[in-house]
Amino acid sequence: MNKVLVNWTDAAKLLADVLGSHGALLVANDRDGKPNVMTIGWATWGIIWSRPVFTALVRPSRYTHQFMEQADSFTVNLPPPEMADAATFCGTVSGRDVDKLKEKNLTATHGKRVTACYIEECVAHLECRILFKNQVTPDLLAGDIVAGFYPHGDFHTIYYGEIVGCYANEGLAL
Questions:
Q1: Pick from 98, 97, 100: which is nearest to 121 by CA?
Q2: Mind giving me the DSSP string for 75-95?
Q3: 67-100: per-residue pLDDT in tens?
């Protein structure tokens, strides 16, 4: 399917629906260009530093974390509802153990404006250049959040990616 450039604010409506239902797929490449995919359900996007920015949270225990630490970019891929099974799989199986892209017959294609790959089968994707990252700081976080979401530690790293390209399947109604 031909991907066309779209306005990121239009794609944000679709992104909100996808995150709320079956999750989006985050892809980052290691230094050798090998992509890894994981499902994300927590994210935010908006204007920071006068730029459109997508923030992605990745726990250090996740295999994807080492890819994000090596990367200069990542993509956020929006799977259609019929890919819900693949999204679930990519969120429950580790790339340490299985090639998730191969297992689910997903095609990783080099980004148009970033080095990270995107997933062809998804209906839209954001290309994000990493601007900044920081660790969630436990002693600065509300206690109920620490207790509810970090009972074993493993505090996320937050990656701030400037949205440098947003593409959708040609003819997709956003």
A1: 100
A2: EEEE--GGGHHHHHHHHHS-T
A3: 999 999 999 999 998 999 999 999 999 999 999 9
Structural domains in the chain, CATH included, are 3-169 (2.30.110.10)
pLDDT digits (tens, 9 = 90+) for 97-113: 999 999 999 999 999 99
Alpha carbons 124 and 143: distance in angstroms, whole number: 37
Q: Please report the DSSP string for the chain in residue order.
A: --EEE--HHHHHHHHHHHHHHT-EEEEEE-TTS-EEEEEE--EEEEEETTEEEEEEEE-TTSHHHHHHHH-SEEEEEE--GGGHHHHHHHHHS-TTTS-HHHHTTPPEEE-SSSSSEEETTSSEEEEEEEEEEEE--GGGS-HHHHHHH-TT--PPEEEEEEEEEEEEETT---
Question: Would the pLDDT of 172 be above 80?
Answer: no
Amino acid code (one letter) for 83: M
- Residue 65 is given by DSSP the state H
Question: How is residue 154 written in tokens?
Answer: 């493993």
